[in-house]
Design goal:
Distance between the termini: 46 Å
Number of strands: 12
Order of helices and strands: HHHHHHEEEEHEEEHHEEEEE
Largest sheet: 4 strands, mixed
Bound molecules: fe (ii) ion
Helix content: 25-40%
Shape: globular
Low-confidence stretches: 1-5
Strand content: 5-15%
Strand order of the largest sheet: 10-9-8-11
Number of helices: 9
Length: 403
Amino acid sequence: MRAPAATKDGIAERLGEARQRTLRLVEQLGEEQLNSVYSPILSPLAWDLGHIANFEELWLVQTAGGREPLDGNLGAFYDAIENPRPGRNELPILRGNELRAYMDKVRERALDVLAELELEDSEDPRLRDGFVYEMLIAHEHQHNETMLQLLQMIDGYDPPDLDPAPAGEPSSDGPEMVEVPSGRHRVGAADRGFAYDNERPRHEVELGPFLIDRAPVTNGAYSDFVAETGAEPPMYWERDGEGGWVSTTFGRRAEVDQALPVIHVDHGSAEAFASWAGKRLPTELEWEAAAAGADPARSNLDGRAFGCAPAGAYADGAADCGAVQMLGDVWEWTSSELEGYPGFRAFPYPEYSQVFFGTGLKVLRGGAWATRRNVIRPSFRNWDLPGRSQIFAGFRCAGDADR
Ligand SMILES: [Fe+2]
């Protein structure tokens, strides 16, 4: 039997849900906020919104339906590779009512095409089993996270009331590190079901035994590291004048909670912390092996909590090795650079991941509180420049185990 999500009604419903969340995130903002540049490394929100719709038009209207675009010139402005982030507000992109009308019109046409298509037995691998639809839903979800990176910079932004996040209880105490025994581990995504090309092919790797932190590194541990070494604090931390720290997201000053995972640290800082602690970062394959058995339903994902749960939470979603919060809360930096797996084949287009292989980007795993649940699988690979800290990135450390 086919999963209900792969039916046309299921796809239409999930496209609708994705759009509802996107609009919910920006509904309190005026045109000025939507069209302002808050950081040279983030797009104005109006660009994100237009890009979401333009990508939908490209794949769900032009590619899937063989139809002409509404305005053939728009694609050039919304191409993420052709238009680096610093210049996006200078482009003649859609704004205001024109932008909303375009989003609505594209969606209407995409649903028309969906109604006409034969998905199940399509000859086209991009359509078979609804692949492009899964890709488009994931794309909109992924842009919600990028938008949240910027929304955190808007003074007075009021996190919308979404369905509450699942409770983080039970919380757990335990050893600082847990061991993953040596052995062969299957990594990557299976052939069937939706996954990005960079997660395939699934393959086996032989790993020696290693230790991994049971929980992500906390603000408390990180502030000790900063105090002792003089290292830079995470983005959004400011001194409170009394020897402590406040965080400043959404323009609000709140005491940094020592029990939460540290977030908004760059790769170099994560590595420096690890060596200060006598440890190292895990490789991405170690990370994936350690995450086996972690339950995505018992994790702080989906943007509902608008922040992290304390380290040790969601203990009933622990991985087989005993590590908690492998999924959700913070993306976790690994020591690995983004490369294709042995036997990699670009699908459905090389610009999703292949063009980034071997360019010095570091892999992050596991998803953050801001990541929609649908995006995350243990095999999902995120990546960024090692110096970036506006992303929702933290880390946990690894170490060698005695053989
Ligand atoms: Fe995109």
